[in-house]
Amino acid sequence: MERGKLIADRYELIGRLGRGGMGEVWAARDRVLHREVALKLLDPDGIAQADLPRRFEREAVAAAQIVHPNVAALYDRGIHDDVLFLVMEKVDGQTLTARLQAESPFPLTRAVAIASGVCAALEAAHRAQVIHYDIKPHNVILTGDGLVKVIDFGIAGFVQAAFTVARSSQLAPAGTPEFGAPEQFLTERGDERSDLYALGGMLFAMLAGRPPFTGHNSIAVVRRKLDEEAPPLDAFRPGLPPEVTALVTELLERDPDRRPQSAEQVQQRLQALLASCAAAEAPTAAMPPPPRTRMMDDTRQAPWQPSPDSWKSASTDETPFTADALLPRRFTNDVDIEFARIAEDTRLSREAGPSDLARELERRDCTEMVAGVYAEQPGPHATPENPVYVSVQVFVFPDAATARDAHKYLGDGGGAWRLTIWSARDGGGLAPCPDKVHRSFQWRYSQRVHRYVTVALAYRADLTNDGSIRPWLAAASRKAAVSAGPQNHHG
Question: In which residue ranges is the amino acid composition biased (Polar residues) (predicted)?
């Protein structure tokens, strides 16, 4: 590839940012939307696999469902002259690799804050059923304003699935030896806990100034990782709080069952560590925990407050709690399928699900919900014979802090699967879906905006259990959730 070349009649290559074993990364200009993007070219290297384009499409669509400040967004994908390409958000900043080379080891607070930003990205990705498989300092970018951005979500997983069997002599597609989990270099592919192992390796490297395992070549590193326990962090950096060394030790367990089992669990521990670090640095002035998506520097910052004239704040009192104020009439998802609202209503929160879930909502002063049902509309990309339906519910809470707590409960698995799934009643209005809908393949997505929490669940009319429709349901539920909220009120 060369500068000035036009990819897919849209993306103009400006300058090469890097080159690796699987292809190149270019800075490019999107001539349609007039913005700078990063364009990644993946070279199949002559391997003939009939399902390669379909796998590539599936992984890219799945990765596009992750919408989070700590994740570099995936905008587009395609094939140009037999080369697979991905179009991503262009993030300006330094890789964590470059920062480590310049100034490692890091101060404790900075290292934990960066790990927390990466963990927040993992939470969002794992919630969307996307595993990275190659978390390492080179895939983490630190921006000039202190934001942590993880890149290549879904891409590393695609590369591993597509190439590890065909190119078994190469270790790179299975993960980076210094940071990849042991199981990734055996016959297993790994799971979410493999990403957590890599997070532990990065935290170790930030605090110790070196990764936990080293060797004269990649095979030696992997062999040590398979045969030996990770060295204790305090052997390289004495004096760290025991909570830090314990967390790193658990993340680097060879057996995935002995590691923390979710990114949410790890994030809670990292947040507690940040709070104790802040208290230790300012013993006479209590400081609130830092924002989860920002990398703390070594200076003390006042807690962020929303602008008093922002719509998010104003909507607290001015948005009517009605379907027309909170739900759009139509939305188009990320795969260009249009959905239209076919039923809506305001219901009591006790109708949201079983009595214990209703009690949890009422305990948080949520007494009502707005519910709506959307149906896939016929069109060039639609499947009208088996349309996708989306059940959407919007809950309102007294303030953002209460909503954040409720979002954890509703959105992170605590009660999400038990929420009522709504359908359109014949003659108008809403009706709970029959039990067989609960047994079909579904996808749900949740979103919080200020004091509003939206949960959307998508399923197909034929109630299939075929998991291959996951990307399409994911695209519908995500867009339904992010489209709902007080931004729809214009009165």
Answer: 302-317
For residue 54, give the H/E element and its range.
Answer: helix 52-63
CA 214 to chain centre: 30
- Domain annotation for the chain: domains and CATH numbers: 6-89 (3.30.200.20), 93-281 (1.10.510.10), 311-488 (no CATH)
Q: What is the pLDDT of residues 435-471, one digit of tens each?
A: 777 778 888 888 888 888 999 999 888 888 877 777 7
With 80 as the cut, is the pLDDT of residue 16 above it? Answer: yes
pLDDT digits (tens, 9 = 90+) for 282-308: 544 444 444 433 333 333 333 333 343
Closest by CA to 443, choosing from 343, 351, 325, 334, is: 334
Q: Helix, strand, coil: what percent of the chain each, to 5?
A: 35, 20, 40
Asked about 134 being catalytic, the answer comes back as yes
For residue 260, give the DSSP letter.
-
Q: Where are the alpha helices (DSSP H) in 241-342?
A: 242-251, 263-281, 311-318, 323-326
Write down the pTM of the prediction.
0.55
Report the chain's mean pLDDT, rounded to a whole number: 79
225 marked as part of a ligand binding site: no
